[in-house]
């Protein structure tokens, strides 16, 4: 599913109206990571416990209450939050943990621009290296607070969020195919925000001079996640 062309609005609306997507005013690309099967054929992840999304700057108290979340893990850097004026609002009864995954935005944009799987693997390797404290905080929450629902997000809900989701689902026993399918859903999940994303990117010199590079950032291909899982498994086997 290429990131270059807009998706059919009717197709997008139909997919977003069904599980695992959840419609929340002011937030995009929200998905429940429940009911995902393990490879043993006997277990599935618990519904209503783990959620992933794009930025939550528009989330309301009612929306958080409807999800039943107690904790938000914000993977964005301080630079991003300030750049886009997109701080997460304070919510009664919800703990917001700022667990940034440090990154170099200029280099990230350059890697995105190529759209090549190899470039994404370099980026994802750097996210893994820098994201240990953030991903560890999420995993400890699962271990220590198994009854407290939570949501984790970055800006678009694709790369840092996608890696966090992959780690959670791998530990839950999900297959690479299932995890890659979840990753690819982000292409649809953030389509309603396509104009906003492109307008933000247009303010970056790299993308202003090369619209194709900006569109490459919208891609979310299954093969990219498959490549990441292979890279991760190879590193763990050493």
TrEMBL record:
Q: Which domain of life is it from?
A: Eukaryota
The protein's matches in InterPro entries, at most eight in alphabetical order, are given as: Prot-tyrosine_phosphatase-like, Tyr/Ser_Pase_IphP-type, Tyr_Pase_AS, Tyr_Pase_dom
Q: Which GO MF terms are attached to this record?
A: phosphoprotein phosphatase activity
Q: Which residues form the Tyrosine specific protein phosphatases domain?
A: 118-188
Write down what this protein is called: Tyrosine phosphatase family-domain-containing protein
Please spell out the taxonomic lineage of the organism that makes this protein. Eukaryota, Fungi, Dikarya, Basidiomycota, Agaricomycotina
């Amino acid at each position: 599913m290429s990131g270059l062309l807009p998706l059919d609005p009717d197709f997008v609306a139909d997919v977003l109206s069904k599980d695992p997507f959840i419609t929340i005013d002011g937030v995009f690309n929200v998905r429940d990571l429940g009911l995902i099967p393990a490879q043993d054929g006997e277990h599935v992840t618990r519904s209503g416990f783990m959620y992933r999304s794009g930025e939550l700057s528009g989330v309301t108290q009612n929306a958080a209450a409807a999800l039943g979340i107690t904790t938000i893990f914000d993977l964005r850097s301080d630079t991003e939050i300030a750049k886009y004026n997109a701080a997460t609002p304070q919510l009664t009864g919800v703990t917001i943990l700022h667990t940034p995954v440090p990154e170099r935005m200029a280099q990230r944009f350059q890697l995105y621009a190529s759209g090549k799987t190899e470039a994404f693997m370099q980026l994802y390797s750097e996210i893994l290296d820098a994201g240990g404290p953030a991903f560890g905080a999420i995993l400890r929450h699962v271990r220590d607070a198994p009854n407290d629902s939570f949501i984790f997000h970055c800006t678009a809900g694709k790369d840092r969020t996608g890696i966090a989701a992959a780690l959670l689902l791998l530990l839950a026993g999900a297959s690479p195919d299932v995890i890659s399918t979840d990753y690819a859903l982000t292409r649809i999940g953030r389509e309603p925000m396509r104009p906003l994303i492109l307008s933000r990117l247009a303010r970056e010199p790299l993308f202003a001079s090369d619209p194709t590079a900006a569109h490459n950032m919208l891609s979310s291909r299954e093969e990219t996640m498959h490549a990441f899982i292979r890279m991760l498994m190879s590193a763990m086997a050493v």
